Amino acid sequence: MTTDFTATRKAFDIPAGLIYLDGNSLGPLPRAAAARVARCVTEEWGGMLITGWNRAGWMDQPARIGDRIARLIGAEPGTVVMGDTLSIKVYQALASALEMNPGRRVILSDTGNFPSDLYMADGLVRTLGNGYSLRTVAPEEVLEAIDETVAVTMITEVDYRTGRRHDMAAITEKAHAMGALAVWDLAHSAGALPVDLAGVGADFAVGCTYKYLNSGPGGPAFIYVAPRHAEAARPALSGWLGHEAPFAFDLAYRPGRGIERMRVGTPPVLQLAALEAAMDIWDGVDMADLRARSLALTDRFIAGVEAACPMLTLATPRDHAQRGSQVSFRHAEGYAIMQALIAAGVIGDFRAPDILRFGFTPLYIGLDEVDRAVGILAGIMASGSWDRPEFKTRAKVT
Amino acid sequence: MTTDFTATRKAFDIPAGLIYLDGNSLGPLPRAAAARVARCVTEEWGGMLITGWNRAGWMDQPARIGDRIARLIGAEPGTVVMGDTLSIKVYQALASALEMNPGRRVILSDTGNFPSDLYMADGLVRTLGNGYSLRTVAPEEVLEAIDETVAVTMITEVDYRTGRRHDMAAITEKAHAMGALAVWDLAHSAGALPVDLAGVGADFAVGCTYKYLNSGPGGPAFIYVAPRHAEAARPALSGWLGHEAPFAFDLAYRPGRGIERMRVGTPPVLQLAALEAAMDIWDGVDMADLRARSLALTDRFIAGVEAACPMLTLATPRDHAQRGSQVSFRHAEGYAIMQALIAAGVIGDFRAPDILRFGFTPLYIGLDEVDRAVGILAGIMASGSWDRPEFKTRAKVT
């Protein structure tokens, strides 16, 4: 192992005493991000004003950071660009893929996908009309459901609720064998485990950066287009910064070169500054090391909770090949149990209807924290201390 | 006049000696924004982590700030929400309006519109198929071109190049008389002059915040939906935060209540923090005062430049009713002249092919700065000092 996880842990500013197992929802603050954002606000925006677009390199940032993310997801250089939200990028990838497969009308997804992906597909299908439809099957039925009617598969590799991981290579291969294109959502993959987009031959991929990549709340998304599609893909959301010559202000749209065409509007410069600081932490990280440590963390948590809390039911696959970097347990009173855990300094989250969700992010979580979290959870379950009114009042955001 | 423009000027951190006439492109840094963003990064993201969505109020921020912008654009409370970029919001407004007028297929716009609006409409038309089209006429022909084939008008009130202002009331009235819906782009209106969306009966409106509203580079956009359409409008880009119950994680999309449905993905929390600080400056500003001062500034600049620089041709209407809050002059060597001005400490910008563009933002620009800018421009034109190679090399971002 060449990765120094003691160093990566020190790169984050996490409140003392807190065990943060929710980096799969919102990553913690990289220590360097506060200064980087402050510099962006004061020296760049404040000091350079409009000239920051050139002098501070704001305009090139989406592609420059995209290249740094490319390494983590096995993408070729020049194939990833930042911008917008994951939902918007899902729409672009789907619309683009559908247009490239004009004889077919079906988007295939699964019920384990994050709902926003399904909602965006629903909105796109509605706008397209003409018999387009979204077909949703159970996660375990995806491979079999890919037939010659499917235009595009839209699958999230790792299930946001259970942490169950799809076989990206097998699904992509089957999609291609049946004449479909494969769109992958890497929301719970990028920075969580090694991804090999080029190796599996993915057509499009999208992901967010505020989870395992630690860009902060509302950090921008990314989109990947395979090099073989770079000049054929139409962005659907064809904004001026995806134009071949944005500052010519032509009245007619002409798609920009390669991945640049997937840009839409003005990039969120302050959020990108935070992301840039977060990406520095990844420079010395080997993704195989990350995966080994992630599996050690999740194995230990599963074993510990199963031994101490028999009333919780494991929802995450035991098989390493089918597991992301999170562990989930089911319990009918999951919401209250999670609130009790949070009150005791262990932050995970709850996903309806009954999932307790724990993210294990090797950059800043160690085995000692896993053991302490297991101990606290075991205490709450043994004492029944979650069974209080204040833990049962649902917050707006769960 | 009740507005204290000395106080608003002091609320901005502008480099000493600089005359900043480019607030129509990127507003300067509000002094309070640096601390507000730093607090968001350190105390909220760093200290609250995932609980910031509830504890720091991140989730409600898009509607809360939307209400503050509503006052400036004459919108009813609860009709404006923040998110995404202007281009994305143009797409949503257009798609939604088209769906509400199903018997018609034409989007009407004009050649003075910002190209990204036209590009987004082009992308939407391509996705819709079925005979939908974008019809673009000269700005002065818009009113006449609204006929019974038009489904939606998509007009930017103030021309980004010339500062020419459309008659929003007349165009909206004609659109409605002919059975069309009116979508307004307020990019160069919001915070620049009084807008009366409710009064003119606009159907949809969109705008950005990094110009006259001073939210910083890449600040989020806003969208307005008239109350009468609130429950009929479909967002087209139907993301999870526009769902009726985002945290129920239902598989089927159900649009949220009213304007909330126009939300898409996770909001850019750091950018919204900057915007929130910027909005505080507007609390004591009367929009009629703002307009009076804006016209005084632009009148003085026009008179000064015309007197001192006969080789520059005014591109902005003299008629107050037809003018926004910027002044533009044409010159074949406009690019080089603007670079010479910037080198001399007067920041405006250039828009192809020949426009020198100057924004007059009453919150922080005064008559003395207008006079100094005129003097510097006159000196450059009289001496021909713009005619140097270093002023003719085009930057990536102009």
From TrEMBL, chains A, B:
Reaction equation(s) it catalyzes: 3-hydroxy-L-kynurenine + H2O = 3-hydroxyanthranilate + L-alanine + H(+); L-kynurenine + H2O = anthranilate + L-alanine + H(+)
- Supply the enzyme class, top level: hydrolase
Query: Which residues are involved in binding pyridoxal 5'-phosphate?
Result: 86-87, 114-117, 156, 185, 188, 210, 240, 266
Supply one GO molecular-function term: pyridoxal phosphate binding
Required co-factor(s) are: pyridoxal 5'-phosphate
Write down which residues bear the modification named N6-(pyridoxal phosphate)lysine.
211
**What family is this protein classified in?**
Belongs to the kynureninase family.
* Name of the molecule in the record: Kynureninase
Provenance organism = Paragemmobacter kunshanensis
Taxonomy of origin reads: Bacteria, Pseudomonadati, Pseudomonadota, Alphaproteobacteria, Rhodobacterales
